[in-house]
């Protein structure tokens, strides 16, 4: 067999000494793409096949029977479905001491009792199995690492075997990350099956809250008007209702971002130590804070856009004209109310400041930005400025509500308006945070975070 030659120029050059032979079992999409990339990287590629006489698969690659192919190389990629692994059992002798790379994936989680790679190892105990490359698709192998993710994960029990695989990955232009022993294989096999895992809960919360508030406000505002006054104001669904649902969901989700941190602090205070694990629900809640925050930023952004178009609504223009004409007709004037002006300007200004900080929080949570921040800078922005954002947005909503909670006419069908409901959670979070930053509590928390334990030093 001869080494691959990419251009006629190189045909004359003898094969470089590092032109190693690599074997690929399996001639499916992935096997072929892998073979192609290996050839391009300068390896000699031998395909192991049940029918070695089948026509040449890839120009420059060799096709041998399984046993002969296995004997020809140290490194063997197993690009075969798990159900067919048992063809390897009779090859135990030829596979002794070889490095087998299990690149397989499953169709769903928990399809088999043990990881494919562990199953492979149990079938061929004499070989060294390395799990890896399973996060790469045939597509990304063919398109090269420029388009696709360069990172591949590997795991295995033999350090030497992993080094062999890593060297090949490097030559293919990939960067392999060693994840540890073969027992991690299951995690690696589940990895490609995940679909935006950290977004799932935040998305559900966003959809759930939006739907709940949409129907609540639909009944309270639009159906109420229809039932009590026979008035059809259903057109309000499009802008007015949306411009209530969006900021309400945004504010609640922003407070959901900061609630777990506050709860965790209280838990540490209560336990008097930082060395006990948080309950699982708190852990997973804390892990999706970034997604919660980014989604709530999206909702805030929609609120700002909806607010910007308020002046060009037909509804508003109609009423302004109507009001002006009626003033003229009745020869009336209205007086300027400074309090109303203060209130309006204040809540708008707080909204704008809150939104500005909100965007800053969103930007600094992007990996390319957060990677260049030190931990101290990151936590300053995400914690201090984060709570300030929550404070500004909550104050914006309180000022918007002003003293209307005092008038009974606002409680249609004995229900409070949406902005009142959405103020509950942020107010609780801010109050708890206020408690936490009082000097004596803060001192205890800081000591606990530094490793001090209650009762340990007595
Ligand atoms: C309500 C403006 C940012 C939360 C309002 C209203 C306006 C407004 C005009 C009254 C809407 C109406 O009467 O239909 C602004 C501007 C902002 C801003 C100009 C920034 C540029 C924010 C942010 C939040 C927020 C970042 C936080 C999530 C709310 C809430 C309401 C509200 C909860 C009450 C909604 C309701 O009517 O039930 N804002 N806002 N706003 N805003 Fe903002």
UniProtKB/TrEMBL annotation:
Membrane-spanning residues: 201-219, 248-271, 292-316, 347-373, 385-403, 418-441
Keywords of the record: Copper, Endosome, Ion transport, Iron, Iron transport, Membrane, Oxidoreductase, Transmembrane, Transmembrane helix, Transport
Topological relation to the membrane, as annotated: Multi-pass membrane protein
Cofactor: heme b; FAD
InterPro entries referenced in this protein's UniProt entry, alphabetically: Fe3_Rdtase_TM_dom, NAD(P)-bd_dom_sf, P5C_Rdtase_cat_N, STEAP_metalloreductase
Record's subcellular location: Endosome membrane
SUPFAM superfamilies: NAD(P)-binding Rossmann-fold domains
Enzymatic reactions: 2 Cu(+) + NADP(+) + H(+) = 2 Cu(2+) + NADPH; 2 Fe(2+) + NADP(+) + H(+) = 2 Fe(3+) + NADPH
Pfam families (alphabetical): F420_oxidored, Ferric_reduct
Domain Ferric oxidoreductase: 248-392
Record-annotated Pyrroline-5-carboxylate reductase catalytic N-terminal domain positions: 21-106
UniProt similarity note: Belongs to the STEAP family.
Protein name as it appears in the record: Metalloreductase STEAP4-like
Gene symbol of the encoding locus: LOC106579991
């Amino acid at each position: 067999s001869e080494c691959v030659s990419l251009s006629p120029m190189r045909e004359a050059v003898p094969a470089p000494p590092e032109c190693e032979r690599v074997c690929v079992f399996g001639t499916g999409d992935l096997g072929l793409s892998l073979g192609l990339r290996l050839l391009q990287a300068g390896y000699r590629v031998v395909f192991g096949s049940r029918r070695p006489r089948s026509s040449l698969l890839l120009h420059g690659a060799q096709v041998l029977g399984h046993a002969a192919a296995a004997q020809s190389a140290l490194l063997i990629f197993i690009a075969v479905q798990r159900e067919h692994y048992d063809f390897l059992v009779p090859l135990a002798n030829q596979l002794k001491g070889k490095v087998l790379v299990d690149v397989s994936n499953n169709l769903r989680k928990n399809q088999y009792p043990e990881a494919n790679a562990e199953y492979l190892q149990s079938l061929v105990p004499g070989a060294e199995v390395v799990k890896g490359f399973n996060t790469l698709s045939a597509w990304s192998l063919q398109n090269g690492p420029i388009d696709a993710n360069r990172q591949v994960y590997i795991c295995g029990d033999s350090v030497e075997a992993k080094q062999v695989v890593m060297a090949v990955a490097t030559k293919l232009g990939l960067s392999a990350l060693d994840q540890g022993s073969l027992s991690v294989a299951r995690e690696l096999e589940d990895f490609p099956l995940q679909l935006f895992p950290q977004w799932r809960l935040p998305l559900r919360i966003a959809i759930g809250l939006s739907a709940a508030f949409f129907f609540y406000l639909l009944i309270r505002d639009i159906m109420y008007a229809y039932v009590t006054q026979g008035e059809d104001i259903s057109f309000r669904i499009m802008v007015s209702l949306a411009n209530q649902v969006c900021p309400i969901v945004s504010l609640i989700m922003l407070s959901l971002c900061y609630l777990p941190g506050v709860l965790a602090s209280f838990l540490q205070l209560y336990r008097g130590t930082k060395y006990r694990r948080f309950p699982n629900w708190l852990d997973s809640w804390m892990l999706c804070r970034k997604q919660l925050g980014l989604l709530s930023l999206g909702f805030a952004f929609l609120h700002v856009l909806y607010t910007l178009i308020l002046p060009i609504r037909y509804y508003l223009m109609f009423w302004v004209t109507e009001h002006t004409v009626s003033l003229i007709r009745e020869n009336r004037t209205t007086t300027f109310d400074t309090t109303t002006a203060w209130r309006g300007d204040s809540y708008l200004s707080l909204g704008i400041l809150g939104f500005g900080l909100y965007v800053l929080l969103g930007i600094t949570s992007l990996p390319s930005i957060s990677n260049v921040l030190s931990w101290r800078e990151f936590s300053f922005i995400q914690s201090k400025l984060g709570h300030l954002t929550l404070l500004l947005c909550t104050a914006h909503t309180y000022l918007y509500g002003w003293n209307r909670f005092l008038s009974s006419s606002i409680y249609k069908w004995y229900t409070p308006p949406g902005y009142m409901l959405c103020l509950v959670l942020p107010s609780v979070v801010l109050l708890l945070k206020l408690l936490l930053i009082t000097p004596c509590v803060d001192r205890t928390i800081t000591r606990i975070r530094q490793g001090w334990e209650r009762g340990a030093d007595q």
